Each structure stands twice: as structure tokens, then as C-alpha cells.
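Why do we care about 3D structure at all? Because function follows from shape, and shape follows, mostly, from sequence. That is the central idea of this module. The next example makes it concrete: a single protein chain, its amino acid sequence, and then its structure expressed as C-alpha cells.
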Amino acid sequence: MRQILKKYFALFLIPVLFSCSSLHSKYDKNELKGFYSYMADAAIFYDCESGNKYSVAFEGDNIALEKAYLEVSENPGEKILVTLNGHFISRNKMEGSGTEDVLVVTKFINIWPNVDCAKNLGTANLLNTFWALRELNGKSSEISSGLEKDIHFLIAPDNKIKGFTGCNNFFGTSVFSSDSLKFNQIEIALKICKDNMEIEAEFLLVLKNIIRYKIYGEYLYLYDKNGLVAKFESVYF
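And the structure:
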């Protein structure tokens, strides 16, 4: 009798386990890639693979995702590519009847400004990268227009820094750890510039006050004690 019961129990248990496994694979994902948008306390994820749109739950690692998004977004509701680990769960709709699939972020991986779903993702290194200035104190890419070359800097493996201010070449040293960054002993090769002295002075003042940095994809964001002050793009030759 006991053997018969075991047989029937096994026959009952196998379909149940198979059903649970199918349900798990339907809603659980490992790494996801898609566009994230946040505005008016509403977060949306647009999945690159399926093209579907999902509301994002305000739990799990969404705090880290939202923080990174707010650091790099330039307009409310802007769509920016992100990578993350997460899973989908069915919940009651906030408006109307019925249920909907909602994304729960289990781990925020990275955010990729100015990148679309089709582009191969890579992250630039702080060291040995030509960082070209794209925004300074809220002023955009027109900063370097008309110059002989981009305003830029490069940090060598020995932490020495060199670059171009828009008027003069400069050099100095840097100290960094984790997300902190400080430029020291900056000196310039003096040359009189008719049109670019103001931008040079502003750029050097910004570098002097930098305290931390973030790299998202191919973009470097520099911050002083008040927030974001400069954005750079990696350039390869």
C-alpha cells in the first residue's frame, strides 16, 4: 500500500514541479537591457529584447537605478539605456481593473547615456582615456567649437594628468579611490589667447574643485560639493 501511495504521489508531484518551473522561467530574468524613464514619481522600463513596456516597482535596487538616472538625465522623462538584473511579477493595476506585469529590480548594473539597444556596450576607464569636454557648468557641446582641438584631459597610470584648456596645455597630478577624485598642482604653459581666456579660467576652476566622479558607459561625470559640473566623452584615435 505504501509503495502504491509513493507512486501516485510521484505522479502528482512531477507535473506540479514542472508547472512551477515553467512559471519561474516566464517571469524571472537574469540580465535585462532597456530604456528607463522616470517622471512625476512614475518609472517605466522599455525592454530591448521584447519591446514591451513595464512599470518599475519602487523596491529592491530601484533606489540605485533612480539615483544614477537622476545624475545623468538632462530632461524629465528622458529615456536612457540601462542594464540590470530583475524579475517580473503580476500585480493589480494602479488604475483600472485587472493585473499587469511589473519589473522588480534586484540589482542595478549600469546606465548608458546616448546609447541605443543595438550598440555593443563598453565602459571606458578613468586612466589612459582621452576625455573630451562635452558640458561645463550646464553649457553644452558648443564649448569646443572653433577650437584647434577639444578641451580635454588624460590621466596616466602614474596618476599624472595632462590636457588642453582651450587656450593652453596643462599638467598636474590626480588622486582617486572608489568614486572620489581630486586634481592637484595644476600648471599651465602660458600663452596669450585672444578669445578663450574665460573658458580656460572656468575650466581650471572646475577642475580645482572636483571631489568625485562617475563613469557611465563612455561618459565621465565630474562633481564638486554642489553637484554635477562637467561631462566628458571618451574619444579613441
